Amino acid sequence: MKTLRTSALMLVLFTLACAQDSTVVLDARLSEVRELIIDQVENGGVPSIAVAVAEDGRIIWEEAFGWSNVEDQVPATPHTMYRLGSISKTITATGLMSLVEDGLVDLDSPAIDYLPEDVRPRTFEGEPGDVTVRLLLNHRAGMPAYAEFFYEDDPEGRRPLAETVRRYGIVVYPPGWSYVYCNLGYQMLASLIAEVSGMSYAEHIEERVFTPLGMTESRVYEGLPFSEPYAASYTQALERIPPYLYSYPGAEGIYASAHDLIRFAMFHLEDHLPYQKAILTDKSIRSMQEPNPTSNLRYGIGWHLDGSERGFRSVYHGGEGPGADAFMRLFPTEDIAAIILCNAECEKLGDIQKALFAALIPELGEPEPTQASSGGQLPAEPTEMYGIWEGRIVAYDRELEIELLVDSAGARIAVNDQPQDDVEVWVLSPTFLLGMFDASIPTPDNERNPYRNRLAVTRDGDRLYGAVISVGSWEARAGHYELPSRVELRRSTRG
Predict the structure, then answer these.
(1) Is the pLDDT of residue 389 over 50?
(2) Residue 373 and residue 10: Cα distance in Å, rounded?
């Protein structure tokens, strides 16, 4: 493998040589951020980083550093397409909102009114009609976490979406109960788009989002080859990761260049660029960035809601996956946006984005104010959770008996006839328990790679219910998966 290690000068020369109509930074405020990025590419195990920044309706910086393809030493440019990961959700939500504006979808109607029959979730809590389109968009449908991908060199290939929904499309919490990030919910939304629009998800996004917004360097990934330049994916050891597909392209499956994505961000800042068509009204754009209901402060329609940082409101989305790390953040009132795209995990991505916005909004870089101690008493022990709980795990192909013991010493769990495991408790309150344990849930999907289990249950009187999520990893390819099963327990009279 050819080495990535080059001088900062060579990186800049490669960028200038390949930047086409990109804008190399001239604003002195961003010079230190630029040096931070160069250092990360040279020393941080990231083959390349592309960045784009907009302020007051104009691009003030577009530049790329390093290699989009290490083996062939292909320089990255702002026009190189990168895997966006979960930033794809913002694009999916935008495409769906075009159907809302057409009067074809009602956000507060049951999602089953629009979904194909074979991609409707199984409902363990509430009724099927309780899951609205808006709740899927907000990650508040009651579905647990799910993540999975399939490499293109895997002879088994990607399973059909309907089968994935059969296995993992489960509503295990009451719809509207809380925010629980769920990739599969966004793939259901992609299927909804296809069902309502009469075209494929990829065709709808191309016709109703990419083309009118002038995003000529953006694609829904449906497998190689691309005719446009794209960034290959790498581990932090600079080992090439084979191309891969998700079960949920509506949640993770889009590639775009920094050049395109900053213009998408500017559309969501209501900048009304002359070469873009108004695919949504400003009212719809604002509605995507607002809590609905007002108690929902975590996630809007395709956007994480960042509340108010030093009085400055922002919305954002990150994206990650094997050989991909990305970030997009907007400050609507200040009319500022930035994009950062990487083709490997970037340890300093958070530091880069914080430094970037602090350079543009100096108040964000000021030291945090000292918080005075509030004193008071420690919370009481969650004795409501104490006792012996018995029940079952319902996986897609089997059921397993489960016993959970909770007391002042923590929690222990036994699955079927396996020895009792300690639960590494992360959260224990009177109404919620979250922790990790090591017992086997031996479905064929789980057994592909090493895994642990995350228990996430809520209490309703003498009942605990929620999910057990088997969390596995494939370290050689920098990937992981999260495969959920339903769990329900009742307090035992022995407890």
Answers:
(1) yes
(2) 51
Please report, in angstroms and rounded to a whole number, the separation of the first and last CA atoms in the chain. Answer: 60
- Alpha carbons 189 and 112: distance in angstroms, whole number: 11
Q: How confident is the model at residue 217 (pLDDT cuts 50, 70, 90)?
A: very high
Of 20-34, 198-212, 265-279, 450-464, which gets the smallest average pLDDT?
A: 20-34
Region 85-365: CATH code: 3.40.710.10
Q: Cα-flanking dihedrals φ and ψ of residue 435, to 5°? A: -170, 175
* pTM to 2 decimal places: 0.92
Closest CA to 149 of 424, 448, 437: 448
Q: Which CATH class, in words, describes the domain spanning 383-491?
A: mainly beta
| Sign of the C-alpha dihedral computed for residues 342, 344, 350 and 351 taken in this order | negative
The C-alpha atoms of residue 343 and residue 325 are separated, in whole angstroms, by 6
Query: CA 302, CA 316: separation in Å to the nearest integer?
Result: 9
Residue type, 260: D
Place of tokens 């961003």: 30
pLDDT in tens, 2-37: 333 333 333 433 343 343 345 566 678 999 999 999
Cβ atoms of residues 205 and 186 within 8 Å: no
Cα(253)–Cα(81) distance, integer angstroms: 12
In tens, the pLDDT along 258-268 reads 999 999 999 99
Q: What is the 3-state secondary structure (H, E, C) of the chain?
A: CCCCCCCHHHHHHHHHHHCCCCCCCCCHHHHHHHHHHHHHHHHCCCCEEEEEEEECCEEEEEEEEEEEECCCCEECCCCCEEECHHHHHHHHHHHHHHHHHCCCCCCCCEHHHCCCHHHCCEECCCCHHHCEHHHHHCCCCCCCCCECEEECCCCCCCCCHHHHHHHHCEECCCCCCCCCCCHHHHHHHHHHHHHHHCCCHHHHHHHHHHCCCCCCCEEECCCCCCCCCECCEECCCCCEECCEEECCHHHHCEEEEHHHHHHHHHHHCCCCCCCCCCCCCHHHHHHHCCCCCCCCCCECCCCEEEEEECCEEEEEEEEEECCEEEEEEEECCCCEEEEEEECCCCCCHHHHHHHHHHHHCHHHHCCCCCCCCCCCCCCCCCHHHCEEEEEEEECCCCEEEEEEEEECCEEEEEECCCCCEEEEEEEECCCEEEEEECCCCCCCCHHHCCEEEEEEEEEECCEEEEEEEEEEEEHHHCEEEEEEEEEEEEECCCC
> What are the extents of the domains in the chain?
85-365, 383-491
